[in-house]
Design brief:
heterodimer, A: alpha+beta, 3 domains, 7-stranded antiparallel β-sheet, 10 helices, B: mainly alpha, globular
């Protein structure tokens, strides 16, 4: 191919074609060199440049100057490497920010995976459990399962039934209170491992009013407290204790997933 | 750039001394090639103080097929003097290009040239060097 057939821009680039092929800096240069590679004129140019560069490298450097450099130091400029890039403060800061954002996002997604209708209320009630003292409840010493009648007779609360898993435990006290949304909540304190039980209205669809049902037992966690929640007949029941999900699972393991 | 090793030595030491001082004061520029740019300007300043060659229109010949063998016969110092005699910025362009340590974009950055200027300086440089080689080695030039 004749170099005269090249476009003016390509010809301009070709005049600057590197002597060493490892200095083919960009795509346009690579393309134009590849195109002209078999032309006599370009071959002459390359041979000429190589010959001149060889002589240039033989130009004596004063020994006082030469001793400043090892062969390695003569590599010009700062070459781009992954390690160097990773140490760049800006890249480091962005990487940390991305990792933190990703971590928060993953945490939120995982939290959402464990959400269920009424989980927000359950978490609030765990905070209530943490701040409740026995003196705040009416002293009642009976089996937890029998308090359903008390709630119905005294407070008119229907279906506020303690599930069979916790029905046989002795109680220390109980109370009924309203939360900030005026929902009536029953709280029972058990002698067993200072477990607290809560009964509260299940979440409903705001449009249809239908109870948002969920199957089996679900767990919530808040400030060192764990709660196991289930829903029956439009009422949620939560057993709460200071500890982990494992401690609660002991009580409901036989019925989990029902 | 200077065609004189003593002057080159002096410029080199001044450039390094200045760089060391700036480093000690934490004032090293973040831009790449600043040391080379600095050295280049010191070279140009040094040359300014010398006698200036007359501005002549040099002959230009097409690059010959046997140019490589003509160049091989050159003494390195002769070539250094020839390059240092070129007017700047062509001298900078030729010096940086034939050092073969920079790609063309780096040379554009360092010598503060545009692509078409660098291209023209290199193309002219080849043809002028070829003309000089032909004049120096007339026998071979005619083959």
């Amino acid at each position: 191919m004749k170099m005269s057939r090249l476009l003016r821009r390509q010809r301009t680039l070709l005049n600057c074609a590197p002597i060493s092929h490892d200095r083919l800096a960009d795509r346009s240069m690579r393309a134009v060199v590849a195109r002209a590679d078999d032309s006599d004129e370009f071959r002459k140019q390359q041979n000429f440049d190589r010959a001149v560069a060889e002589i240039v490298h033989l130009i004596p450097i004063p020994p006082e100057t030469a001793e400043w450099f090892s062969e390695k130091d003569l590599n010009v400029g700062s070459k781009w490497t992954w390690r160097k890039m990773a140490r760049n403060p800006a890249v480091l800061a962005i990487s940390i920010a991305v990792v933190v954002i990703a971590g928060v996002s993953v945490f939120q997604v995982l939290s959402r995976l464990n959400d269920f209708p009424g989980s927000a209320t359950a978490r609030k009630l765990l905070t209530v459990a943490a701040s409740t003292r026995p003196v705040m409840l009416d002293p009642v010493s009976t089996e937890a399962g029998t308090l359903s009648d008390l709630f119905f007779m005294k407070h008119g609360l229907e279906h506020y039934d303690v599930p069979a898993e916790f029905g046989d435990f002795r109680t220390i006290g109980c109370r009924v209170f309203e939360d900030e949304e005026s929902r009536r909540i029953a709280q029972i304190w058990l002698a067993e491992k200072r477990i607290q039980l809560f009964l509260f209205p299940a979440e409903r669809n705001p449009k249809t009013g239908a109870v948002l049902w969920f199957p089996g037992w679900r767990y919530v966690h808040q400030e060192g407290w764990a709660g196991a929640v289930t829903e029956r007949s439009g009422v949620c029941f939560m057993a709460a204790l200071r500890g982990s999900e494992k401690d609660l699972a002991l009580y409901i393991s036989n019925t989990k997933g029902q | 750039m200077l065609g004189d090793s003593a002057k080159a030595q002096e410029v080199f030491q001044t450039t390094l001394r200045e760089a060391a001082l700036r480093a000690a004061q934490g004032e090293l520029p973040r831009e790449p090639f600043w040391l080379f740019r600095d050295a280049r300007w010191r070279c140009l300043e040094t040359v300014k103080e010398d006698l200036q060659p007359e501005a002549l229109k040099l002959d230009e010949h097409d690059v010959a097929p046997h140019a490589a063998s003509q160049i091989e016969k050159l003494e390195p110092a002769q070539l250094a003097v020839w390059i240092s005699g070129a007017p700047d910025p062509q001298r900078t362009a030729l010096a940086l290009f034939y050092l073969d340590e920079f790609d063309y974009q780096e040379i554009l950055d360092l010598a503060e040239l545009k692509l078409n200027e660098l291209s023209r300086f290199l193309a002219q440089g080849r043809q002028q060097l070829q003309a000089w080689l032909n004049a120096k080695q007339p026998q071979q030039g005619k083959v």
